Amino acid sequence: MSRELRQFLEYWYALGGGKYPPERSHLDLRQLASILRWMFILEMDESGLLKFRLAGSCIEEALGCGMTDQSYADLFSVNQNANITEELYALSLVQGSGLLRSGSFTLDNQTTMDLQVLALPFADQRAMGGVVMVGAVKPFDYNNPGFVDRRPNFDQFIDELLSVPSPRFLSEDQLSERLSAKLQDKSVELRVLDVEAVLNSDVAAGMQENKRFPCFTSDVLPTTQAH
User: Fold this and answer.
1) What pTM value is reported for the model?
2) How far is CA 52 from the centre of its chain?
3) CA distance 191 to 189
């Protein structure tokens, strides 16, 4: 896990994440100032659409479009892989669990960069369902001074997909047959992240390339499961 995402995970965990979704009002973005430009907030509106309440300036500049108050579907309608992510975010919001995904992505169909995105649940009574998803993207280099829309050439490839328990978590038997088939087709398994193992691991070791995230095995899972 990148240093930036680990910082966010540690902060969320210190607020009670893992035991319950922390209150959105307790989120002090000043404590995350160094990664604020790489953060976003997702929520579900009354019609069931997933929307960005906020998006960091680096994310918007890299993609070349404004994202605040835009629906996830409209922003990434040209990318089929994004449909998988949208459905997983929606399910995680309903269950009040987090989501960690890693792999690679491209903005120009030529250069491939590492992808790590961590989205964690926060309780917010103003939001549909009482939960919002606050996320952070592992920083990456980009060059888009003209604010050119890069979405037509954007694509992402998921290698690892983990539900982050709080304490409820998302497991494969909660996925639709269609979504399960899509993940299976891409040889991606939904696992459950062992948050304490991540936080107790050595920072340098946790940032090694090709190192898989610690997770619970199928026969040893957290005690609280999504319904």
Assistant:
1) 0.91
2) 13
3) 6
